[in-house]
Write a structure and sequence with these properties.
The complex is a heterodimer of chains A (102) and B (639). Helix content of chain A is 76%, strand content 0%. Chain A contains three helices and no strands. The longest helix of chain A has 31 residues. By secondary structure, chain B is mostly helical. Among the domains of chain B are: 269 residues, no CATH class; 42 residues; 29 residues. In chain B, the strands form two sheets. Chain B has a two-stranded antiparallel sheet with strand order 1-2. A two-stranded antiparallel sheet of chain B has the order 3-4. In chain B, helix 17 runs antiparallel to helix 19 and helix 19 packs parallel to helix 22. Chain B is globular and about 115 Å long. The chains are: A mainly alpha (102), B mainly alpha (639). Chains A and B meet through helix 1 of A and helix 25 of B.
């Protein structure tokens, strides 16, 4: 029987982060991109917790709570923005919103 | 002691009364009509003259012991304070300025009648009188400098009073700018004085001249001399004065005859205890005075503007005063200043009356034969002409003779100076005789049917000044040294050149009278009897030299053109080059380069800002990778 070590969790977190990042890079639906951000945040949370477990300290777990709170606040703001984008152009694509290009 | 305190307070009144009048009139100028303005300004002028006369008498009873009043001390080290002084020298100027100011204002009420800026004229006029009094009554160089600058300002205002005329506006500018050249010298002189003496007070400076190196005294004298040259229109800074004739004629009478232009003479007499120690400065003053006297007299002989002749004559007479100062005859300089103030004010006001009656025609070629139309003006102008020509016993004779004798008595090279001064005196008589004859005698074929005698408000001041022009010379004759007594305390430590005694004086006097008479007679022969028309000039081959003289005279030896070419055009070209090279290429170029560099670089970098979120995420990821690589390469915790 294989033992599940800290490395496994870290690897999983890295994979999750990469998937989130890749999604950010290739998708243009604002809602999907938002989900990718959540994915990355949770990958980071997983890293914190596994490191906390590995070193036997609670610092990482406290950080995770902070991240959760910030993520919740961000969801509120982000969803509001997405709703307003949707109202404006009846699609959630962000590629049209390139007015701030140089 | 009680009396002194009273005098101290009283002699400040004539200084500040014109200032208050100026402010009062300025604030109420919309409210007052001409009559009320005249009432206030004339009464104020008369009052300040009365107080000035009272102060002068009180001073005379006290044997001309200087009265100082220090209003307050501004800075204690160096010792700078605001103060005034009343001594023989400033007392004379006080009486002269307030007295002439009253007479000329009386004349102005008529001359400036129905002018749209009637009230403004009197505001400027009173302000000018205040500035001049500030200048002459000061007890230190600082207050004198204030007066000096304010006189420049108010003369600018008066010269360009009719600023709608472009020539008047230009003349005001010219006067102001050329005066600045002199003021620059004055200012540097003041800086050296402060550095050397650590004070500005006349008394403290002029009593302590013995321990100072002669080079320092020479430097001070030379720079102050430059200031005096600017204000008193001496060569080479004289060309503003003829142009300044664009102002109202009474203002010209006050500024360019009686007061402002004498500021330089006054100042040099004031610093005479310093000046006597510097032989170089004295020599330069007499040389420049001589050049000015001859040049201006020469220029006056072929002018056709009634006021320009008088303007050049003023410059020439100021040259005489500078000659006197250079020869060490400070009393003679002040004496000539006083007599000249009266007869030149008379001549200018007479010219004003003529201009008024001729409906602002100033060309003397279009006048002629006015004697029968304007008998009072003609006779008064005649007195002025005789006085300035040095015909005894009129005022000009005594002062001019005293200057000539003082130059002569110095001996050596001064004999040459004396001969040249005599030549200038001859020229003076000649051009003044021509001036009078062309205006009042010679028939130029013009009818002048509508020309009448000037109004009483004009002829009365003329009569008054005419009487003074005859008798003012008696204040200082070889038999009665009145002015010398007045200036005795002021020039206590100064070696004043005294007149020669006995037969020499008589011979010199006869020569100077001779020069005057010869000038007048030649003028009469040429312009009264028109002798030159009866002689065939071509037979003597005189035509071209005479035309050359005429041409040179009316163009002032082409000095104006030379100055224009050399200083104005040269400066313009230089500044144009500076504008193109330094400003256009260097400064503008560098600024423009900087802005284009920023513009171009930002254009390049802004292409990365695509506006697409995905691209930003890519940048973000790339930098994250870079950061991770950095972490791996450099461990966070140092071993």
């Amino acid at each position: 029987m294989l033992e599940v070590t800290t490395d496994w969790y870290l690897t999983l977190a890295a994979i999750l982060f990469s998937i989130g990042f890749l999604g950010m890079m290739i998708r243009k639906n604002a809602l999907i991109m938002f989900m990718c951000i959540e994915l990355m945040l949770n990958a980071v949370n997983l890293t914190f917790i596994s490191a906390s477990k590995h070193f036997g300290q609670v610092d990482g777990q406290i950080f995770v709570f902070f991240v959760l709170v910030v993520a919740a606040a961000e969801v509120v703001v982000g969803l509001a923005i997405i709703v307003s984008i949707f109202r404006k152009q009846s699609s959630a694509s962000v590629d049209v919103l390139n007015v701030s290009r140089g | 002691m009680y009396q002194e305190v009273k005098l101290e307070l009283i002699f400040l009144l004539p200084i500040f009364l014109p200032f208050l009048t100026a402010i009062f009139l300025f604030l109420n100028k919309k409210l007052f009509n001409e009559l009320i303005t005249n009432f206030f300004t004339l009464n104020s002028a008369l009052l300040s003259f009365a107080i000035a006369a009272y102060s002068f008498i009180a001073l005379a009873l006290d044997k001309f012991k200087p009265v100082n009043v220090e209003l307050f001390q501004w800075i204690s080290n160096p010792d700078i304070s605001i103060g005034f002084t009343l001594d023989g020298l400033s007392g004379i100027m006080l009486i002269l300025v307030t007295g002439l100011s009253f007479v000329i204002q009386l004349f102005s009420t008529s001359y400036m009648e129905k002018d749209e800026n009637h009230c403004n004229y009197f505001v400027y006029f009173n302000f000018f009188v205040f500035s001049m009094l500030l200048l002459v009554m000061s007890s230190n160089f600082l207050v004198m400098f204030f007066g000096w600058e304010l006189v420049g300002l108010s003369s600018y205002l008066l010269i360009s009073f009719w600023s709608k005329k472009p020539a008047a506006a230009k003349a005001g500018n010219k006067a102001f700018v050329i005066n600045r050249v002199g003021d620059f010298g004055f200012l540097i002189g003041l800086m050296i004085i402060l550095d050397t003496f650590n004070t500005f007070d006349f008394y403290k400076i002029l009593q302590n001249t013995s321990g100072i190196a002669e080079s320092t005294i020479t430097a001070i004298s030379l720079f102050l001399m430059l200031g005096a040259f600017g204000k008193s229109a001496q060569f080479p800074l004289f060309s503003w004065l003829p142009d300044a004739m664009e102002g109202p004629t009474p203002a010209s009478a006050l500024i360019h005859a009686a007061t402002m232009v004498t500021a330089g003479v006054f100042m040099l007499v004031r610093i005479s205890p310093l000046l006597q120690h510097s032989k170089i400065a004295s020599l330069l003053i007499i040389i420049f005075g001589l050049i000015t006297a001859l040049l201006a007299a020469f220029s006056a002989i072929n002018q056709f503007d009634i006021k320009k002749v008088l303007a050049y004559s003023t410059i020439s007479q100021l040259g005489f005063m500078f000659i006197a100062i250079g020869a060490g005859a400070y009393v003679a300089a002040i004496f000539h200043l006083v007599t000249h103030a009266f007869f030149k004010a008379l001549l200018f006001l007479g010219a004003g009356a003529v201009i008024h009656s001729m409906h602002h025609e100033q060309d003397i070629r279009k006048m002629g034969g006015l004697r029968k139309k304007m008998p009072i003006t003609a006779s008064m102008m005649g007195i002025g002409t005789l006085a300035i020509s040095g015909i005894p016993p009129l005022a000009g004779f005594w002062s001019k003779d005293e200057i000539l004798a003082s130059v002569f008595v110095n001996g050596g090279i001064y004999y040459v100076f004396w001969a040249l001064t005599l030549g200038a005196a001859f020229l003076t008589a000649f051009y003044m005789g021509r001036h009078w004859l062309l205006i009042f005698e010679k028939d130029n074929g013009f009818e002048h049917s509508d020309v009448t005698e000037a109004p009483k408000a004009m002829t009365r001041p003329l009569l008054l000044l005419g009487v003074f022009s005859i008798f003012i010379g008696f204040i200082n004759t070889p038999f009665f040294h009145g002015l010398e007594k007045v200036l005795h305390v002021t020039l206590e430590n100064v070696e004043v050149t005294h007149l020669p005694k006995g037969i020499t004086l008589v011979v010199l006097a006869v020569l100077s009278i001779g020069a005057g008479f010869t000038g007048l007679i030649i003028a009469f022969l040429l312009f009264g009897l028109e002798l030159h028309k009866r002689i065939d000039l071509k037979k003597f081959k005189l035509e071209s030299p005479i035309n050359l003289v005429k041409d040179l005279s009316s163009n002032v030896l082409y000095l104006n053109k030379f100055g224009n070419l050399f200083f104005v055009s040269g400066m313009k070209n230089l500044s144009r080059k500076v504008a193109v090279v330094v400003d256009g290429m260097l400064i503008d170029g560098s600024v423009n380069f900087l802005s284009t560099a920023f513009n171009k670089s930002s254009k390049i970098t802004s292409t990365t800002q695509t506006g697409l979120v995905r691209n930003y995420v890519v940048y973000f990821g790339l930098f994250l990778l870079l950061l991770i690589a950095l972490f791996i390469a450099t461990p966070l915790v140092p071993r």
